[in-house]
Write a structure and sequence with these properties.
little secondary structure
Length: 250
Amino acid sequence: MTQDKYDLVFKGQLVKGVELAVAKNNIASLFKINAAKVDAMFSGKPLVLKRGLDADAANKYRVAIKKAGALVDIVLVREAKVSGKATFAVPDSDTPVPEKPVGAIPGTIPGTSPSSSSPATGQRNPAPAATESAGLSLAPLGAEMLPATARQPDPVISVDTSALSLRAVGGDLLDAKERQSSAPEVPVPVTDFGLADVGAPVLRAEERKPVRAVDVDISGLAMDLSESNLAPPQPAPPAAPDVSGLQLES
């Protein structure tokens, strides 16, 4: 069983959210090519990066290029198998040409009658002769209609990728000397750092900001140490009315 082969075709498409300049820089670092070759790759025309890859290799290339910010198409390579072709028979110059088209509708050609019977003899006109189809054949379903010599192949730009290589999956795209740092790295010693116990103050005594005490004058205040009610005295309730002289009638 023949193993399927695939081509990597690049059309200049970018991953969503990736800027063109960033993708070009990553592709240049990934394939180790100069800016002129990178610009040619992003011209928008179909570009075959690799030919005849198996499925695993083609997928590895696709993942690595996607991490760089670009998209490639994996195209299955199919060899066209033509099992037949259409041929056409050309009549000889000595073959007599009929006076009227075969199978023409009566009445649609000058000098003919729409009646199906001959007015002179009353007999029906003979059926038209069958069209010659000798020498004609149909190509199988899915076969190419034109031979290989008559087809015009699509222009494909071929880029030499023999000097290109791929980084390992998960590795950095740029070498340490190729990365541009916005600010120099400052080493920070952490030997004096430690963790406090749970519940312990985070700051030491000398690190805590002192709180200034507020002096409040309480010389005019006093406290009643007796058990008397602190609320003001309530007025005495009114005396009960005298009802000794009242009686109920039976």
